[in-house]
Amino acid sequence: MYLVDEYYQYLLYVLCMSKPLDRLTLLETFVRIADAGSISAAARDLGLSQPSASRQLAELEARLKTQLIRRNTHSLALTEAGVALLADARSMLDSWEALEETHLSGQGEIRGTLKVVAPIGLGQLQLARLAWRFQLEHPQVSLNWLLDDEPIRFSELGCDCWIKVGPVPDDTLIVKPLGRVERLLVGSAEFAALHRLPGTPKAVEKRSLVALAPFEGGTIPLTGPKGARANIEPPLRLSSNNIVAVKEAVAMGLGMAVLPRWFIHDELEHGTFVDVLPKWRAPSLTIYVAYLPGRHQPRRLRAFLEYVVAQVPGIPGIQRCVARATGDNSASETCDSRRGP
Q1: What is the pLDDT of residues 38-77, one digit of tens each?
Q2: Structure pTM?
Q3: Can you spell out the DSSP letters for 132-153?
Q4: Lowest-confidence pick of 124-128, 177-181, 332-336
Q5: Position with higher pLDDT, 144 vs 41
Q6: Quick one: 95 and 167 in the same domain?
Q7: How far apart are CA 341 and CA 338, in angstroms?
Q8: Do 4 and 34 touch, CB atoms closer than 8 A?
Q9: Is residue 110 in a domain?
Q10: Residue 227 contacts residue 275 (beta carbons within 8 Å)
């Protein structure tokens, strides 16, 4: 009887001590602090008090015998050791989550949080609608939906996937094409009537341009009938890195602009915008989705990736891409001519 009582006393001791000594808990707290940029914000996310989160960070630093975060009164910054640990910590937490998903009984529904970075234009409209529909199909999934057109540091940001228009400048990620964006030169109906458009590339070149940076500069390459090529250099009236501002400038008659069909589909349908070179197109841009390599992907991420691969080509003005193996561990893609409804 004594041995049994002693054993249960030992178990009670372990259970009481397990929370402060739980390595995964310490790593999760560290990752949340790094993501949130403050201990108080991370504590709120985790349902902890700020002193508790600070103690867990201090315990992790004591275990690893190194400073992970530099603190001052206004901000936090990862040390070199903290940056190195962050990627490993994410990988370990992802692996643990995958193990739970594999062995937890009764786990029928997809659940958990997805952190997705998407381009600002598409991410406010068409991609957002796809993401919300995904959530309606999977009510136990919550989304952290971040919009950014600039390159990101994937591992430091801690996102699950990154949807980007144009090349993904990170060779540590798996990158897959989702579709290609048709881009055309358009003007408002009033602008087109005033300048007698549509016309030829040579005639259009004399009209003012509203440029969407960084995709357009001084020269716009065009592809026409039977693969004909032309370069035009219209006078630049306005340049902006915001697609909504460029569209508004075109609507007000400030000039013509190269815009993606998905963004001006309704205006073209209603006749408020005019395709000023119907037989010519600016270079298309590929939409990619990028994510970390590895065998352990949460079910929610796998499901979301499958969903966007299937649904993005249904957006008007986006052509489906088909990846082809090239035999050298790389891939190229071709796009069929099917457009969304």
Answers
A1: 888 888 878 888 888 888 888 888 888 889 998 776 778 8
A2: 0.70
A3: HHHHHH-TTEEEEEEE--S---
A4: 332-336
A5: 144
A6: no
A7: 9
A8: no
A9: no
A10: no
